[in-house]
Amino acid sequence: MRLKRRTASLVLLGTITMFSAVGLVAPANAEVFQGGCTGSAVFSDGTTVTESTPLSEVVVVPEEDSVVYQGSINLPPPDEEVPFSGAVSVRLPRFNWAVVSWEDTTEEVSAGGTYSYEVPGFVPRGVQLEVSASHTQQGQTCDVAVTMKLDGDPGAAAIISATGMVVFAVGTLGAGIKKKVA
Amino acid sequence: MKGRPFLGIISGFLFGLFGGLTLILFGVIPLHSDLLWILPLIGLLLGLTLAAWAPFGSGPQQAAQGPTVTDDTIVDGDTSAD
To answer: Would you call A23 and B51 a contact, using CB atoms and an 8 Å cutoff?
Structure first.
């Protein structure tokens, strides 16, 4: 009986350990650059993200900032205005959430400027986000992705979540208690 | 099922869900990770397995074999003193 209990506890402990061990594995490398284009974004603290930043590298960014950006697509300038479109999106489980998108016509093949952003308060800090940018012009699509993390602590949400995990771990163990026969 | 399957299903599912959320919120796994829906399924299976296995608590057979107290065995202190 004692051995059985110990084995059951080890199974649960193993599951919790697996949860933790998964975290030690860095996100896998992936295709981060498709199509011929270059681009960069420089944050006010000097953090720079380029098209060659590997997906396995987690870039920590402030929750609000002004970013100096530039990008160009490796195509000859068109003779007349051509349509273009693109978006920056955050990858969520099963779908992507478009944060900002653009669509217009242009004769240019490069652009630059400053973009100010402020992340809403409900987005937890310290969470790894895969942010991807896509731009399509003259039939050529350029895709870039980078792993980002908002600067700061996850806050009360993480503590509540960890507490919930422990409470329901106990509940799961409770499922292994034999029912009393009347 | 010797244990509590409904408790196992609900607690196991929520254990996996909160486990996944905790890993995400502490920045251990990325937000888009498939573990967010895989872990609740693993937790659910774990809860069901524990409920079927029921390694904790005394079994009904052992409880039945234990000493039983009946009215005949109860000795009234005042009566025996007389």
So the answer is: no
Shortest Cα–Cα distance, B79 to chain A (Å):
33
| A118 closest CA partner among A157, A62, A48, A60 | A62
pLDDT by residue (tens digit) across B7-66?
999 999 999 999 999 999 988 888 888 899 999 999 999 999 999 988 888 655 554 455
By residue range, what is the domain housing residue B42? 1-52
Are A128 and B23 a contacting pair at CB < 8 A? Answer: no
Task: List, for residues A9-35, the tens digit of each pLDDT value.
Answer: 555 555 444 444 444 433 433 344 566
Count up the domains in chain B and report the number. 1
Position B5 in a domain: yes
Residues in B 26-55 with any Cβ partner in A closer than 8 A: 26-37, 39, 42-43, 46-51, 53-55
pTM above threshold 0.80: no
Tokens of B57: 């608590």
> Which domains, from first to last, does chain A contain?
28-155 (2.60.40)
Calpha distance A181→B65 (Å, rounded) = 13
Q: Is B69 part of any domain?
A: no
The two structure tokens encoding residue A182: 């009347």
User: Is B33 in contact with B24 (CB distance < 8 Å)?
Assistant: yes
Strand-pairing partners, residue A177, are B56
- Residue A97: which of A72, A118, A123, A117 has the closest Cα? A123
